[in-house]
Structure formats: C-alpha cells, structure tokens
Amino acid sequence: MKLWAGRFSKEVDKKTNDFNSSISFDSRMYKEDIEGSIAHATMLGECGIIDKSEADLICNGLKQVLDDLNNGKLAIDMNSEDIHTFIEGELTARLGDTGKRLHTARSRNDQVAVDLRLNLRKELKELKLLVKELITVICNQAEKYCDAVMPGYTHLQRAQPITFGHHIMAYSEMLLRDLGRLDDTYKRMNEMPLGCGALATTTYPIDRTITGRLLEFDRIASNSLDGVSDRDYCIELANALSLIMVHLSRFSEEIIMWCSWEFKFVELDDAFSTGSSIMPQKKNPDIAELVRGKSGRVFGDLMTLLTVMKGIPLAYNKDMQEDKEAIFDAVDTVKMCLTTFTPMIETMKVIPENMRNAAAKGFINATDCADYLVKKGLPFRDAYKATGTLVALCIKKGLTLETLPIEEYKAVCEIFDEGVYDAISLEKCVEDRAVYGGPSKKNVLSQVERVRNYIK
Hints:
Helix content is 63%, strand content 5%. It is mostly helical and 456 residues long.
C-alpha cells in the first residue's frame, strides 16, 4: 500500500515502481527513521495533538520494531517504496489505527531530511575516529624515524635533506585539516528539519523544540522551505571526504614509489600486498593502488551531488532522492580505505639505510655548500655558481660533494677549507634546519607531541 495511494485509481506500473523506489539504499537508515519517529510521537503526545497513551503505544511499538530488525526477527520488505513506508506499515500492522496516527503533522519530506542528518551525523563521528587512528599511526612512525635521513623532493628530483619522520608528518597536517573540515560540516549539519512538513510546516500546534532536544540537534531549521530542500551538508561532507581521498591518494603514490626497487625505502607487510599470477618475484602494493584509484569514485560522488542540486527550485523535488546513493557511497568508500590504509602504514617496514644512500648520491647538500661560502662572506649568487661548478665536476668524476678532495674545492673557490665537509654532512644539514616547521629531530618530535595532544 502506497502512502499516497488515495489520489490514484490504478496501481503504478512495476517498472515505474522500481524506478521510483529507494528502499534498496535508504533501508540503511532504519534506525534513524525509528529514532526520529519516536521523538515525533513523543512530541505529539506532549503537545496533546494525539492522546498521550497512544503516543506511548506508538513509541513502544517502534522500539519493538527496532528490536526485531536488530535481532533478525523482522526483515525489511524490499518491495516497499522506501524505509519510511515499511516502518509505518509494520507499525500499523501491529497497532492498527493507533499506528496510523504517527504521521500526523509530518511529511516524508521532513522525515527523510531528519533521517539523513541523523545518519550522516553518526557516520561523521566514525570517520573522525578513523582519521585520528591514521594520524596516531603516522605520529608513531614519525617518532620512530625522526632522525632517519632521506632526500626531500621537488619535481620528483632530489632536492634537500630531510628525515622520514618529517616527511610523513606532512600528511598528519593534511589530515588535521580534514578533521577541521569534518567538524565544520558537523556544525552546519546539526540543524533539525523535522516540523518543516512538506514545505510549509503544519497547522497543528507542534513544538519543534521538543523533537530538537530529544534528537540532540543544536538548533532548528528556521525556514521550512530550506529545511526540507537543503542538502548543502551532503555536498560539504562529500567535499571533505574528497579531500581526505586526495591526501590518501598522494600518500599512496609515495608508498607505491617507495616500494619499488628503484627506491626501496619501505617494504609493505605481506598482509597488505599481493603477488602476480605469472611473475613469482612480484610483490605488488595493490592496497595503495586501490586507494589511489578509489579517490576518483569519491570525486564522482561529489560531482553527482553538485549536479543534482544545481538546478532544483524550492522546495523538495524527487531529484533529491539521488543524494543518498552518492553520499552513502562516498562515506563507505572512505571508511573502507581508512580501515585498510592505516594498518598498512602501521606494519610497513622502513629501510633507513636505503634512504640515507639515496640522500648521499643526490647532491641534496649543495644548498648547504653554497650557504657555507655565504657565511664566509661570498655573495649568494657567486656561492651558487661555485657550488654548481662543483656538482658538475663531481658528476663528471663520479664523486659526491662528501668525497670530492679539498684541492678540487679550492680550485673552484679559494675560500673553501676542511670545514666544508662538516657543513655538508647530511645529518648536520638536517639538524641545522631548526627553524620552526623544519626537519630537525627536535622539531619533528615537537610536531608529533603537538599533533598527539590536538587529537586527544
């Protein structure tokens, strides 16, 4: 039985019914639908709109439906139009006319709006916990390898010496911003639309503050048209999730490179790698590659939501049914990626000696060599040119700045002395970068402490 059947003289075509139905994806909101309905029925009873005893019967009946769904005694009928229709129908089957009173002073428009906010509010809290778990793992790895020298890169070319701890803590900063975006989304999401009705509230003397308090919303939607048609919070959440995936994808790209024999900076645990069906030597970083690939899926969900909402006049339109599949997919994908990515980072083996060897061969201490001359009074541009000449000489002779004889240094610039070898020591180059935000061991450990305190 359709909730809107009274207006129509014939049954809806089956294909039309299947096309119109949303039960296949909105059934995941059954808990929230019952939660919102209990609050609504409670309010109806307190306001005297329905008899208090009937309100109590409705609430108890809804709780029994919830228990039966949770323990498997009751299965959701996937032939129902949506989860709201199924639950109201089940309640009416149990309570008769009393169950029919539940929908007094309510529309499916404000009902689905409150269900979705309640559902995403819970999902957002879970997402925050997952992001915090990843940040914690990053902090642990950074602390462990706070002095493991590696080359820092620009343009994927070795640039300056940093440490592995410093490098991965950059991702903690990205993820902290992600937490901030999730918090901001939550603040705007936590507004209650229940009571907005179909679009123009109701003539019944309802008290929206009661339902707002029972459902723990920060405030009540102040315009009924906006209350039932707002999906900004879905778009904001999808945007925040897209940025999380951008960061996971960037991190995945580095993991994939670092696992290759060309780098061999890390090795993934066997539990987070796969092999080849034909090449027995292969150990593939498939988890990182899948995370990188699934970012496009979440970006697509964001674009779906933007496209759905861009041309919709006030108030509710059926187009908005498309919001749930997109935002649910984005949420599920990010949760799945985080729950797999975090233990992968936690269990990966870091190989500091390979990082140190790569750093030694990349002339990444050339800037420090030039700075050595500047500190002795040579203008920077002259120091830059002299150092560039030395790098070219090293390449020609198959040497590094550390192994180039002092005579060769002096032949290029007589200011050089034996002190240059201490100045270009990779460890010293890193430790001398003690400016706030730099890669020195003290800075890395300080950043780890700050981030840990923040996420607590």
